[in-house]
Design a protein that fits this description.
The complex is a heterodimer of chains A (174) and B (175). Chain A is an all-alpha fold. Chain A has seven helices and no strands. In chain A, helix 1 packs across helix 4 (51-92), helix 3 (34-46) packs across helix 4 and helix 6 (130-145) packs antiparallel against helix 7 (150-164). The relative contact order of chain B is 0.12. Classes of the chains: A mainly alpha (174), B mainly alpha (175).
């Protein structure tokens, strides 16, 4: 299991890819059923903290209990963290400096295109209903456009959302 | 509070407000790192995020970069641990009880509220990065081209980033 999670961590260049997990753990090895995976996926989206590592921890926990969860985290984040620290040291020494300035700028611009696509896809798949659009819109305007502190904005919108989405007696299948 | 403690605490609570994905944490992480604590400049933050996308593992590893810029290797290690470990403990603790919680009506209420908040934060993250990155027409053109290339979903993002980097190297030399 450690090997598989390390491999997923290393191969997830350019940002976490939950689909890798699905391929490795469900499709190829059959360690989990699809519905178990989807449950852990939904959970990892909801919990605070980085989604991708949350997913790894939830899956690792399901597979091997607490040791599984611990190893999942180390295997997934550890290698990347070491590389990142190395890059930060190089950057700090200015070795990623003058000659590489334009390439870095252009890569950053490409990243903006990339994250715009990612965000667009997420919104297209997951944003459903007037209440959801209202909540997402308020957060976007507050945190993105007005650059307000995120914590009060999240707290306020969460309060509003919990009230708007409050359980109603007549609702089936809640 | 010591500087190291301040870094640990900041990234700890940042990890708890990261709802719906790492990108959604970027507006507040940038605000804290640049405007509130002055650990790095907006430009450096963007560079760090870009490097984190070139690095295996989650994009939130930019926390390690910020921590290092603020306080060296120790800062990077503390920021990384604060960002990932406590949130993981909670994930492990909740994972076992999740099914029962989800079946309750208010479980659904929470899902329907946090989901859209996460999406709003993610969209805000795009704005944060664009604000620092789109400095001229070149950058805007590259961002647009990258988005168009990535739209069908056939080209790996890292290939597009590397291509943009190579193009930038050529531009620096010949333009």
């Amino acid at each position: 299991m450690t090997l598989v999670f390390t491999w997923i961590g290393l191969s997830s260049l350019g940002g976490g890819r939950s689909a890798y997990f699905y391929d490795e753990v469900v499709a190829r090895r059959g360690w989990l059923r699809t519905d178990e995976f989807l449950q852990d996926f939904a959970l990892s989206q909801m919990l605070p903290g980085p989604n991708f590592s949350n997913l790894a921890v939830a899956l690792g926990y399901r597979l091997c209990g607490l040791p599984g969860a611990a190893w999942a985290l180390v295997a997934l984040v550890g290698p990347g963290a070491v590389v990142m620290l190395g890059l930060a040291v190089l950057y700090g020494h200015g070795w990623l400096g003058p000659g590489l300035e334009t390439p870095l700028r252009w890569m950053s611009a490409a990243v903006v295109g990339l994250v715009a696509i990612t965000a667009g896809r997420m919104i297209q798949t997951a944003l459903r209903g007037g209440t959801a659009v209202l909540l997402a819109g308020l957060v976007f305007v507050g945190v993105g456009l007005l650059r307000l502190p995120a914590v009060p904005v999240i707290a306020g919108v969460a309060g509003l959302g919990l009230w708007l989405n409050r359980p109603r007696p007549g609702e089936a299948g809640a | 509070m010591s500087d190291l403690g301040r870094i640990g605490w900041t990234f700890l609570w940042l990890s708890f407000i990261s709802i719906g994905g790492g990108l959604g944490t970027m507006p507040e992480m940038e605000r804290q790192a640049v405007a509130v604590h002055g650990w790095i400049t907006a430009r450096e933050f963007l560079d760090g995020y870009t490097l984190s996308r070139l690095t295996p593992g989650p994009g939130m590893l930019v926390a390690v970069f910020v921590g290092h810029r603020a306080l060296g290797v120790a800062g990077g290690v503390v920021a990384g641990i604060a960002m990932f470990v406590p949130a993981a403990l909670i994930a492990a603790a909740v994972a076992r009880r999740w099914q029962t919680v989800r079946a309750r009506p208010w479980g659904r209420t929470v899902e329907r509220t946090l989901g859209p908040i996460g999406l709003g934060l993610t969209a805000a993250g795009v704005v944060t990065l664009a604000r620092s990155a789109l400095v001229d027409a070149w950058a805007a053109g590259i961002a647009l081209s990258a988005a168009l290339i990535l739209l069908p979903g056939r080209v790996p993002p890292v290939a597009v980033m590397i291509a943009a980097g190579l193009a930038g190297a050529l531009a620096a030399r010949y333009l």
